[in-house]
Amino acid sequence: MATVILDAGHGGADWGAEYNGRLEKDDNLNLTLAIGEILQESGVNVLYTRTTDVYDLPIEKARIVNESGADYLVSIHRNSSPYPNQYSGVESLVYNRYSIAGVMAANINAQLEQVGFINLGVNERKNLIVLYRTIIPAVLVEVGFINNDADNYLFDTKFYEIADAIARGILETIQ
Fold it and tell me: Could you tell me which CATH class the domain 3-174 is placed in?
């Protein structure tokens, strides 16, 4: 079975986005650990860039990934917009959408759509270090908008379904 390295975005002094006291780094870590448990129960070898509230520079995360021996990287984040409740939904970012990472991203998004998120699609992002400096297929998943009340309600009330949906999207790609 493949090895997947999971990255909980941000951490430590880098909170990521914040909304009404809610910190992206905390949502990212909690969800990443839940996804990892599900993948491990499915027989996937799981590694992590972090399992506690620490911060590594993006270039350091890319080094960790590249030296890990993993086959795939999935980085978990929450999106944010300039104004509260302006946007809603899940978006996945890849370096090249016509790659296996693009397939995995589309599979994850489709599973999250079934949980109730609006599917904002798979988009290329050529300037994100964890996407362009890693040597394995990499997907960055923006799991709803942290400054959208409906997305946060979904995140909180369907947390385990969301973790399971992301794991299913990964498994659908690697099996």
Answer: alpha beta
